[in-house]
Design goal:
- With about 260 residues, the protein is of the alpha/beta class.
- The protein is about 45% helix and about 15% strand.
- It folds into 2 domains: about 10-190 and about 225-255, NAD(P)-binding Rossmann-like Domain (Rossmann fold); about 190-225, no CATH class.
- It contains 8 helices and 7 strands, in the order βαβαβαβαβαβαααβ.
- It has a 7-stranded parallel sheet, with helices on both faces.
- Strand 2 (about 30-35), helix 2 and strand 3 (about 55-60) form a beta-alpha-beta unit.
- The longest helix is centred in the middle third of the chain and has 29 residues, at about 105-130.
- It is globular and about 50 Å long.
- The model has no long low-confidence stretch (mean pLDDT about 95).
- Its EC number is 1.1.1.14.
Length: about 260
């Protein structure tokens, strides 16, 4: 359908998982994509897309926690494909542990990426849109963890709650400029990161490897964990003109796990 034909989409945390799946969906819809991750060279998972879409896709390395690096990244992206019209703001990290044992280093690492990094990228993209007098769409990645607390996941839950709150505030600030800001709150999604999450739960809850992953999938009303591709439809919808009258919302894509 090419609902995003010729639009320039910037995707952070797109070296794999959800970001990679959304990049592939955007490319199929005709977008030109600047995909960003921390690695100096494009991750191997991106190779098939780079080969298939050589004129629509390029890779950029940036640390979203660094304001100067974000500025350089955006300048390179604009130099290749012009002004950014769609932001899929996905870069994030996960960690967990008992609240009373959690240290400041864990807190700072999670908030530096999930909140500060998210904010820096969003702010600079929005500034460029406003200065150019261009409309656009921003999609921040929240989580079902941002809808509720979890005893072992306090910092991550709080960071994703902050993403939801920043999304609402930014949407209200940008509404006079015709720029929409929304978020997606995935549930449990079967990505390589979940092997790390499962291992952490196994350690802290004294479970067998794989036990937590199986349990959370079965607890989803639709009966399974999500896949990265399950997020693609929502990401296309919120980036496209089909959602032209939607802003300040956080869309749950979680198989029915959270009802709000």
């Amino acid at each position: 359908m090419h609902r995003l034909a010729s639009r320039h989409a910037l995707l952070t945390g797109a070296g794999g998982g959800i970001g990679l799946a959304v990049a592939e969906a955007y490319l199929a819809e005709g977008a030109r994509c600047s995909v960003v991750d921390l690695a100096a060279a494009a991750p191997a998972a991106l190779a098939p897309l780079l080969a298939r879409y050589p004129d629509q896709l390029h890779y950029l390395s940036a640390d979203v926690r660094d304001a100067a690096a974000v500025d350089r990244m955006l300048a390179l992206a604009a130099g290749r494909f012009g002004p950014v019209e769609i932001l899929f703001n996905n870069a994030a990290v996960f960690d967990m542990g008992p609240l009373l044992e959690s240290d400041l280093a864990m807190y700072e690492r999670i908030f530096d990426v999930n909140v500060k990094g998210m904010f820096l990228v969003m702010r600079q993209v929005l500034r460029a849109m406003v200065e150019a007098g261009r409309r656009g769409a921003v999609i921040n990645l929240a989580s079902q963890a941002g809808r509720r607390g979890e005893a072992l996941v306090a910092h991550y839950c709080a960071s994703k709650a902050a993403v939801i709150s920043y999304t609402q505030s930014a949407a209200l600030a940008m509404a006079p400029h015709g720029i929409r800001v929304n978020a997606i709150a995935p549930g449990v999604v079967d990505t390589p990161m979940w092997d790390h999450v499962d291992a952490l739960f196994a350690r802290h809850e004294h479970l067998q490897p794989g036990e937590k992953k199986r349990a959370v999938g079965l607890a989803v009303p639709l009966g399974r964990m999500g896949t990265p591709g399950d997020l693609a439809g929502a990401a296309i919808f919120l980036a496209s003109d089909e959602s032209a009258y939607i802003t300040a919302q956080t869309l749950n894509v979680d198989g029915g796990a959270v009802m709000s």
